[in-house]
Write a structure and sequence with these properties.
By secondary structure, this protein is α+β, with helices and mostly antiparallel strands. It contains 5 helices and 13 strands. The chain folds into 3 domains: 5-96, Ribosomal Protein L25, Chain P (Beta Barrel), CATH 2.40.240; 103-192, Beta Complex (RNA Polymerase Alpha Subunit, Chain A, domain 2); 200-232, no CATH class.
């Protein structure tokens, strides 16, 4: 299970444009804590603390402790709204979790062995990432920090699929849970053949050859010119 984070929060008034603006001017981010068969709680979190937490990949898939005036509740990050032009956080949503209830989350896929990949090392292939994250289902206690996929032995023109991902115990990929016919066993990563580029010099030679052929076709031979004069006479 990923490391836990703790965010200090304070209860805020439920709504109000002026209040939200004042919170942001004071350096806080308005947020909501919901779910778990409890009422929604509108909270405020220090902007800089939340901003730097979001810079850590593991924060997005971690169990987060929301400490509201000494009342600690476990939650996961569900949504973040960022300013379209400024480097700032506008709003955040946190969902309470129940240790006995299954949750679903989207986790990043970490590709292992890219530098040693057979298709790249021996054939100059190009690795193509087709899926970068995957939705999983598990109990909160089994929640992994990320999902790993080893591509060391992947050869040229080969692919690895969702079913090739080795999952920790108690973790399932939601797409495959009821996929009896493997219709949704999508490819995750492939090794493609290297791109063949035409050298600039070769291209110039080809163009010169075309120009020469065109000039030759426009020229007439001496015999052709003599025949034309005799017909004119």
């Amino acid at each position: 299970m990923p490391d836990q984070f703790e965010l200090i929060a304070r209860v805020r008034a439920r709504s109000g444009t002026n209040l939200v603006r004042r919170l942001r001017r004071e350096g806080d981010v308005p947020a909501v804590l919901y779910g778990g068969d409890k009422e929604n709680v509108h909270i405020a979190i220090n902007h800089d603390v939340l901003f730097h937490s979001l810079e850590k990949e593991e924060f997005h898939s971690a169990i987060i402790i929301i400490n509201t005036d000494g009342n600690k509740e476990q939650a996961i990050l569900r949504d973040v709204q960022r300013h379209p032009h400024k480097i700032s956080i506008l709003h955040a949503d946190f969902q309470r979790i129940d240790e006995k209830k299954t949750l679903t989350m989207s986790l990043p896929i970490h590709f292992i062995g890219e530098q040693d990949c057979v298709g790249v090392r021996t054939s100059g292939g190009i690795i193509s990432h087709l899926i970068n994250d995957v939705e999983i289902s598990c109990l909160p206690g089994d929640l992994p920090e990320s999902i790993e996929l080893d591509i060391t032995h992947l050869d040229l023109n080969e692919s690895l699929h969702l079913s090739d991902i080795k999952l920790p115990e108690g973790v399932s990929i939601t797409t495959l849970m009821h996929d009896e016919n493997n219709e949704h066993d999508y490819a995750v990563v492939s090794v493609l053949p290297p791109r063949i580029e035409v050298e600039p010099e070769e291209a110039v030679v080809e163009e010169e050859g075309l120009e020469t052929d065109a000039e030759d076709s426009e020229k007439t031979t001496p015999d052709e010119s003599a025949d034309d004069k005799s017909r004119d006479g």
